[in-house]
């Protein structure tokens, strides 16, 4: 039986997740795998509202913001992730529920949902077979966003927040998480990702949907 696989890319803004994901998708396809790439927030109506929020994050409460990410993910899981995975594909998602825990989670004592509650609220979402967590100092990721993309930082990307988000990502310890140092050049990072993914595929029971 062919069993698909879900691989999530996670990390703070500016770590190169999207580029690395695309390169991995190309590599896996060349090697005969059926691959679907996707991202969160999605382009659903919830995702579009989230993107509006980037411009002015204070326009809704932390709980409302969390609810939007959860509804967006609920649709994403139901309409894309689960069916594609069940069809034997390798689904690569740019962000998943670890982002919600890291970005919307608050430290103990602060107002707002805490990280453990956020994981519990995401229990509807299947655990990925593998999480590629790209790590980088926030100083460097911000530099890359400014210089590389020529972008102004949006509200989600302010330095102090990114620093806290990086700290939360650093605490996650699910066994499916594999940390990869993304401060190296892109090719080295991609080689490291491929090595981990190939190893995972080779050990995955029933996972051999090479055409
Ligand atoms: P990002 O992957 O940077 O998308 P884009 O390339 O379209 O800008 O994600 C956008 C922002 O959304 C990013 O700053 C992280 C944030 N985010 C959360 O805060 N919580 C979540 O659950 C997700 C999926 C993203």
Q: Tell me, what is the CATH class? A: Alpha Beta
Morphology: globular
Count of spatially separate domains: 1
Determine the CATH topology: Rossmann fold
Spatial strand arrangement across the major sheet = 2-3-1-4-5
Low-confidence stretches: none
Q: State the helix count.
A: 8
Order of helices and strands: EHEHHEHHEHHEH
CATH superfamily: P-loop containing nucleotide triphosphate hydrolases
- Secondary structure: number of strands: 5
Description:
With 211 residues, this protein is of the alpha/beta class. The chain has a single domain, classed as P-loop containing nucleotide triphosphate hydrolases (Rossmann fold, 3-Layer(aba) Sandwich). The protein has 8 helices and 5 strands, in the order E-H-E-H-H-E-H-H-E-H-H-E-H. A 5-stranded parallel beta sheet has the order 2-3-1-4-5, sandwiched between helices. Helix 1 crosses helix 8, helix 2 (45-55) packs across helix 3 and helix 4 (97-104) packs across helix 7 (159-171). The protein starts with a strand and ends in an 8-residue tail after the last helix. The model has no long low-confidence stretch (mean pLDDT 91). Bound molecules: thymidine-5'-diphosphate. Thymidine-5'-diphosphate binds next to helix 4. Thymidine-5'-diphosphate is lined by residues 13, 40-41, 69, 94-95, 99-100, 103-104, 156-157.
In short:
51% of the residues lie in helices and 13% in strands.
